[in-house]
Protein backbone atom coordinates (compact mmCIF):
# COMPACT_ATOMS: atom_id res chain seq x y z
CA UNK A 1 0.00 0.00 0.00
CA UNK A 2 1.41 3.38 -0.94
CA UNK A 3 1.75 6.19 1.60
CA UNK A 4 -1.02 8.30 0.06
CA UNK A 5 -3.51 5.44 0.44
CA UNK A 6 -2.27 4.69 3.96
CA UNK A 7 -2.56 8.36 4.93
CA UNK A 8 -6.12 8.53 3.62
CA UNK A 9 -7.09 5.40 5.55
CA UNK A 10 -5.46 6.75 8.72
CA UNK A 11 -7.22 10.11 8.35
CA UNK A 12 -10.56 8.35 7.81
CA UNK A 13 -9.96 6.16 10.85
CA UNK A 14 -9.06 9.24 12.89
CA UNK A 15 -12.31 10.96 11.87
CA UNK A 16 -14.33 7.85 12.81
CA UNK A 17 -12.55 7.58 16.15
CA UNK A 18 -13.17 11.25 16.88
CA UNK A 19 -16.88 10.74 16.23
CA UNK A 20 -16.98 7.64 18.43
CA UNK A 21 -15.06 9.36 21.21
CA UNK A 22 -17.47 12.28 21.02
CA UNK A 23 -20.44 9.95 21.43
CA UNK A 24 -18.85 7.84 24.17
CA UNK A 25 -17.52 10.84 26.05
CA UNK A 26 -20.67 12.92 25.65
CA UNK A 27 -22.99 13.84 28.47
CA UNK A 28 -23.93 10.54 30.10
CA UNK A 29 -27.45 10.13 31.32
CA UNK A 30 -27.48 11.34 34.88
CA UNK A 31 -27.48 8.43 37.29
CA UNK A 32 -29.76 10.39 39.57
CA UNK A 33 -32.47 10.51 36.90
CA UNK A 34 -32.85 6.74 36.96
CA UNK A 35 -34.71 4.61 39.43
CA UNK A 36 -32.92 2.54 42.04
CA UNK A 37 -33.70 -0.59 40.04
CA UNK A 38 -31.58 0.77 37.19
CA UNK A 39 -28.51 1.34 39.36
CA UNK A 40 -26.88 -2.00 38.50
CA UNK A 41 -27.34 -1.58 34.77
CA UNK A 42 -26.12 2.01 34.99
CA UNK A 43 -22.87 0.88 36.55
CA UNK A 44 -22.44 -1.82 33.92
CA UNK A 45 -23.21 0.62 31.08
CA UNK A 46 -20.83 3.18 32.54
CA UNK A 47 -18.05 0.62 32.87
CA UNK A 48 -18.62 -0.60 29.32
CA UNK A 49 -18.60 2.96 27.96
CA UNK A 50 -15.42 3.77 29.86
CA UNK A 51 -13.70 0.64 28.50
CA UNK A 52 -14.78 1.43 24.93
CA UNK A 53 -13.62 5.04 25.35
CA UNK A 54 -10.23 3.86 26.64
CA UNK A 55 -9.80 1.56 23.63
CA UNK A 56 -10.82 4.32 21.21
CA UNK A 57 -8.40 6.78 22.83
CA UNK A 58 -5.51 4.28 22.61
CA UNK A 59 -6.29 3.59 18.97
CA UNK A 60 -6.50 7.34 18.29
CA UNK A 61 -3.01 7.80 19.78
CA UNK A 62 -1.74 4.96 17.55
CA UNK A 63 -3.24 6.58 14.44
CA UNK A 64 -1.76 9.98 15.32
CA UNK A 65 1.63 8.34 15.90
CA UNK A 66 1.41 6.63 12.50
CA UNK A 67 0.62 9.97 10.82
CA UNK A 68 3.61 11.48 12.61
CA UNK A 69 5.83 8.63 11.36
CA UNK A 70 4.60 9.40 7.84
CA UNK A 71 5.55 13.03 8.29
CA UNK A 72 9.02 12.23 9.58
CA UNK A 73 9.68 9.50 6.99
CA UNK A 74 9.77 6.51 9.33
CA UNK A 75 6.36 5.04 8.45
CA UNK A 76 6.67 1.34 7.66
CA UNK A 77 9.72 0.88 9.87
CA UNK A 78 9.44 -1.00 13.15
CA UNK A 79 9.72 1.37 16.09
CA UNK A 80 11.58 -1.29 18.09
CA UNK A 81 14.07 -2.94 15.72
CA UNK A 82 14.05 -0.54 12.76
CA UNK A 83 13.26 -3.32 10.30
CA UNK A 84 10.44 -3.15 7.78
CA UNK A 85 6.86 -3.68 8.86
CA UNK A 86 5.41 -6.15 6.33
CA UNK A 87 3.11 -4.60 3.71
CA UNK A 88 0.35 -7.06 4.61
CA UNK A 89 0.46 -5.93 8.23
CA UNK A 90 0.23 -2.28 7.19
CA UNK A 91 -2.62 -3.16 4.85
CA UNK A 92 -4.52 -4.77 7.71
CA UNK A 93 -3.51 -2.20 10.34
CA UNK A 94 -2.16 1.02 8.82
CA UNK A 95 -1.34 2.30 12.31
CA UNK A 96 0.96 -0.68 13.07
CA UNK A 97 4.20 0.53 14.63
CA UNK A 98 6.04 -2.77 14.92
CA UNK A 99 6.97 -5.75 12.80
CA UNK A 100 5.20 -8.99 13.66
CA UNK A 101 8.14 -10.37 15.65
CA UNK A 102 8.55 -7.25 17.84
CA UNK A 103 4.79 -6.96 18.36
CA UNK A 104 4.68 -10.61 19.47
CA UNK A 105 7.51 -10.00 21.96
CA UNK A 106 5.69 -6.96 23.32
CA UNK A 107 2.42 -8.88 23.76
CA UNK A 108 4.18 -11.75 25.57
CA UNK A 109 5.59 -9.27 28.11
CA UNK A 110 2.08 -8.13 29.12
Architecture overview:
It is built from four helices and no strands. The radius of gyration is 18 Å and the shape is globular. With 110 residues, it is an all-alpha fold. The protein has helices spanning 3-24, 39-72, 87-92, 100-109. Helix 1 runs antiparallel to helix 2 (39-72). The mean pLDDT is 88.
In terms of topology, how is this protein built?
Elements: H1 3-24, H2 39-72, H3 87-92, H4 100-109
Main attributes of the structure:
110 residues, mainly alpha, 4 helices, globular
- List the total number of helices: 4
Poorly predicted runs are none
Structural class: mainly alpha
| Ends distance | 30 Å
Mean pLDDT: 88
* Radius of gyration based on Cα positions: 18 Å
Strand runs, count: 0
Bulk shape: globular
Helix content: 55-70%
SSE string, helix = H, strand = E? HHHH
Q: Into which percentage range does the β-strand content fall?
A: under 5%
Amino acid sequence: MDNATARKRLENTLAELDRSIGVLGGDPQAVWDRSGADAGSTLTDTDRNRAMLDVAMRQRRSVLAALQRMDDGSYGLCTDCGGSVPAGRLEARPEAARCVQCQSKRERRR
